[in-house]
From TrEMBL:
The lineage of its organism: Bacteria, Bacillati, Bacillota, Clostridia, Lachnospirales. This is Aminoglycoside 6-adenylyltransferase. GO terms for molecular function: nucleotidyltransferase activity. It comes from the Bacteria. Keywords: Nucleotidyltransferase, Transferase. It holds the Pfam family Adenyl_transf. The keyword Nucleotidyltransferase applies. It comes from [Clostridium] celerecrescens 18A.
């Protein structure tokens, strides 16, 4: 695998030699000083270009970065939804190379790039041929900090968590495991994750990011809570799914009470107790 130094040298060498590329900047985890570096981090790179058409008319230029193993072009791969993208302003490639390195590369025209450049706190300028990139603060994760929830957000999270458990329980009882798993992981567990994030943020003055989809839960949760969190995941075995559901209930209750106490909100004790009774009765019902 090529080293970080080799990859940055290659990226900048390509940009400097191509007159169509006027500036380069980086986003993502490599721009975050708080993230521990490892060899699996992507290179999230933006090329500010004079135009996009020539890059798109012959995409073989991508191979200058190395031998491609697998590539995705998310802007053109809309899975049939008819997503409207203006390729004349922006286009991206997600590229995994055979040596294990990955570059998430996006080309943007100057106008589009400046808008993006100023909107992301995790931005590091790498090259600016025409002095078009504005001075910005040192890259930080401040733009990704978890915000204090309003009472409506808190109440909505609690209600969604407890209400949708009735669907999970019925799905397990009917042996409709794909449905139950989807309802649990895609609806209920998302609310647990939101509460986990509020709990973590609460204990860090709402000045922290937990990364995409809980990347840093292990870093920020006390070890005993993290172990409880892991028990909220399940495979397809019905009994294991029941265990995960009740583990999620116990953890959600603890976290939600902590958050409500900190913010001066009221926890929905009645919803909690009534839904626990309901799903317990379903689990042990004879029919």
């Amino acid at each position: 695998m090529r080293s970080e130094k080799e990859m940055f040298e290659l990226i900048l060498r390509v940009a400097k030699a191509d007159e169509r590329i006027r500036a380069v900047y980086m986003n993502g985890s490599r721009a975050n000083p708080l993230v521990e570096k490892d060899i699996y981090q992507d290179y999230d790179i933006v090329f500010v270009v004079s135009e996009t058409q020539s890059f798109l008319s012959d995409k073989t230029w991508i191979t200058i970065f190395g031998e491609v193993a697998v590539m995705q072009e998310p802007d053109s791969n809309d899975f049939g939804w008819g997503k409207d993208c203006d390729f004349s302003k922006s286009y991206g490639w997600l590229i995994l190379f055979k040596d294990g390195n990955r570059i998430d590369l996006r080309i943007m025209t100057k106008e589009k790039a400046i808008e993006n450049y100023l909107s992301d706190s995790l931005t590091v300028p790498l090259l600016d041929k025409d002095h078009i990139l504005h001075q910005i603060p040192q890259a930080s994760d401040t733009g990704y900090w978890i915000k204090i929830p309003t009472i409506q957000m808190y109440d909505g999270c609690c209600n969604e968590f407890w209400w949708c458990l009735n669907n999970v329980a019925k799905g397990i009882k009917r042996d409709q495991i794909p449905y139950a798993l989807r309802m649990y992981s895609g609806v209920v567990h998302i609310q647990l994750d939101i509460m986990v994030e509020w709990y973590i943020a609460m204990n860090h003055g709402f000045s922290v990011s937990t990364g995409m989809w809980g990347k840093y839960y292990k870093k920020y949760l006390p070890s005993e809570l993290y172990e409880k969190y892991l028990k909220t995941y399940s495979g397809g075995n019905p009994e294991n799914l029941w265990n995960a559901v009740f583990s999620a209930c116990d953890l959600f209750r603890f976290l939600a009470l902590q958050v409500s106490g900190h913010l001066g909100y009221t926890y929905c004790v009645q919803d909690d107790e009534n839904m626990i009774k309901y799903i317990t009765s379903i689990k042990y019902a004879d029919h």
